[in-house]
Amino acid sequence: MNKDLETLFLNIKNDFSSFINLKLKIFQLDFSEKLGKLSSLFFIGLILILLLFFFVLFLGISLGLYLGELFNSYGLGMICVALLYLVAMFVIILNKQALQTKMVNLFIEELINDNEDEDQQ
């Protein structure tokens, strides 16, 4: 009887340690998957921001040249575009908290949606 209890506890201990090891491996795989997804989202966002930067840059140059022809002074056209950029910068600074909250919410939503997709599978 004592031998049976000893083997039973030994089996339970081995099963429990196997269970903990498997849980750790699952955690590592989940973490790696989330890290990979977030890093890919980061790089995609970085590429989109870079493309948007060049779009706005060339749009600003084009608008400056167009306004320069309207005002018969390229300098005045570029100043008007610079003032537009300045106004846009102030609008962004004034709405910084709301924009920051939206970005954090998007980030959290992406993590939560990832968990919901796993639950549905």
State the shape. rod-shaped
Helix content: over 70%
Largest sheet: none
**First and last CA, distance:** 45 Å
CA gyration radius, whole angstroms: 29 Å
Percentage of β-strand residues:
under 5%
Order of helices and strands: HHH
Number of helices: 3
- The secondary structure category is mainly alpha
Which regions contain 5 or more consecutive residues with pLDDT less than 50? none
Number of beta-strand segments: 0
Mean pLDDT: 88
Account of the protein in words:
The structure is a single chain. With 121 residues, the protein is mainly alpha-helical. Helix 1 runs antiparallel to helix 2. The longest helix is centred in the N-terminal third of the chain and has 70 residues. It is rod-shaped and about 105 Å long. The two termini are 45 Å apart.
Summarize the structure.
The radius of gyration is 29 Å and the shape is rod-shaped. The model has no long low-confidence stretch (mean pLDDT 88).
List strands and helices in order, with pairings.
Blueprint lengths: L1 H70 L2 H21 L1 H25 L1
Helix pairs in contact: 1-2
Give descriptors for this structure.
about 120 residues; mainly alpha; rod-shaped
